[in-house]
Amino acid sequence: MKISVQRLYDSPNDYKDMIVTVEGWVRTIRSSKDFGFIELNDGTCFKNIQIVFENNVVNNYAEVEKLPVASSISVTGKIILTPDAKQPFEIKAEDIEICGVSASDYPLQKKRHSFEYLRTVAHLRPRTNTFFAVFKVRSVLAQAIHTFFQDRGFVYVHTPIITASDCEGAGEMFQVTTLDLDRIAGSKEKVDYSKDFFGKQTNLTVSGQLSVETYCMAFRNVYTFGPTFRAENSNTPRHASEFWMIEPEMAFADLDDDMSMAEQMIKYIINYVMERCPDEMEFFNKFIEPGLFDKLKVVTDSKFDHVTYTDAIKILKESKVLFENPVEWGCDLQTEHERYLTEKHFKKPVFVTDYPKAIKAFYMKVNDDNKTVRAMDLLVPQVGEIIGGSQREERHDVLVARMIEMGLAPEDYWWYLDTRKYGTVKHAGFGLGFERMIMYMTGMSNIRDVIPFPRVPKHAEF
RNA sequence: UCCUCCUUAGCUCAGCAGGUAGAGCAUGCGGCUGUUAACCGCAGGGUCGUCCGUUCGAGCCGGACAGGGGGAGCCA
């Protein structure tokens, strides 16, 4: 009977003394003259299973004993419960079929590797404990987000990856073209985009928000969850050129509804992953970020705090802390300021709201003071900003005025403005960086280590 | 893009007052009746990131470039 290792760990007693077959990859072999041990991972489970093989039992002992790490095998044998050993059970092999003998220059040792080195073998690193756990959590976290929103009646919208709006206002964009760049480079003429594939200049999306707002006006509660591209030359452990983003949008909702939803979502997805990835999370708590569980518990168990930008500035000024960047009303909060607020002052997640309109996007709702907008950032200890959102400006005339104020051409956004023309309604939404959430959940400190094949400036290997 | 640190065997690292290299792991061979980062023995493996300079002599000093880490800005 073929069985997964996960299944065996779920209920070892059900398989006591039964003959089963497991298939997997050798993580390590220890052998002596007439018997040996194999640690096998079959991919279904973070934990390995120990295979015991003996010279007078399996007919290919010498071959098995010499198998290099990473070789693939199929093992048939009896499940033996071993309550006194380090592992709860093992398989006493009766037959070991060798599927693929690995080459002896396999780049992964049993020993610890640096993450920098493992990035150079990104195609092999999911076979290590750390990356196996990271990418399992990534998968489960994605499902957690879908489940959270679907259970609440949100509709999942696939907004376009290729977009023609060239100024969504969120940074440098990657251009998409089928024009012959080699030829264009040599000519002095201006590029004629009417000859390009779409008949106009197009780019990869930097945000699905404007598109999803139109679906919000049909389905009421919607969300996007997809890849996003930024051509910024920013080289940090928290930025990638290609990353995933979650953007919910709710009609008939104000900023308070928005923050409430964000808080519920964060708590829900943390609990969801904790429940479904206990081994992986245990591993992170032990080896990657000691204290991880305490950190997450503060988030799931506390009521998030709220403070306005104006009050936050006051708090920072009164703190008497000598910041590298002095605080003044009107300036954007720097990382050091955000971390002071959430780590030292509030000591838990905190929403900062009502930022000066000059430092925020055009689509955010202008407050009655005409100086601030209904924006919110969720700050969490150790990371700083993890969510950014706002109530949207639903008044057509105010929105148009804001666009002009910020140097945008309203006619380029005619379809977006139509949402304010045909049955406009107050609405709000936010954006969550998927990878940043994974980093927060796992304690991994570099975004390149939570994306299977990360893309950052000067790197598109694999 | 700016600041700062790093670059020695496949991997992780050591090296000294400037005198032409070492360990562990990995690999190969051998040994071992319960291991679990197994252990013991033997062996192979390096133009010390690249180029230029100082010096009788440079892995070690100086410069440039490349690659990487961390911090900052931008943001998710």
- Sketch the major β-sheet: 8 strands, mixed
Overall outline: elongated
**Strand pairing plus helix content: what structural class?**
alpha+beta
Helical proportion, percent range: 25-40%
Order of helices and strands: HEEEHEEHHEEEHEHEEHHHEHHEEEHHEH
Low confidence ranges: none
**SS element count, helices:** 14
Radius of gyration: 27 Å
Strands of the widest sheet, in order across it, are 6-10-11-16-15-14-13-12
Strand % is 15-25%
Could you tell me the mean pLDDT? 91
Q: Kindly report how far apart the N and C termini lie.
A: 37 Å
Description:
By secondary structure, the protein is of the alpha+beta class. 32% of the residues lie in helices and 24% in strands. The protein is built from 14 helices and 16 strands. An eight-stranded mixed sheet has the order 6-10-11-16-15-14-13-12, with helices on both faces. A five-stranded mixed β-barrel has the order 1-2-3-5-4. Strands 7-9-8 form a three-stranded antiparallel sheet, with no helix packed on it. Strand 14 and strand 15 form a beta hairpin. Helix 4 (129-151) packs across helix 7 (255-276), helix 4 packs across helix 8 and helix 4 (129-151) crosses helix 14 (434-442). It is elongated and about 85 Å long. It starts with a helix and ends in a 20-residue tail after the last helix. The model has no long low-confidence stretch (mean pLDDT 91). It binds one RNA strand of 76 nucleotides through residues 28, 30-37, 39, 50, 52, 54, 68-69, 85-87, 104-114, 116-117, 119, 170-172, 207, 228, 230, 232-240, 243-245, 324-325, 334-336, 385-388, 431-437, 446-447, 458.
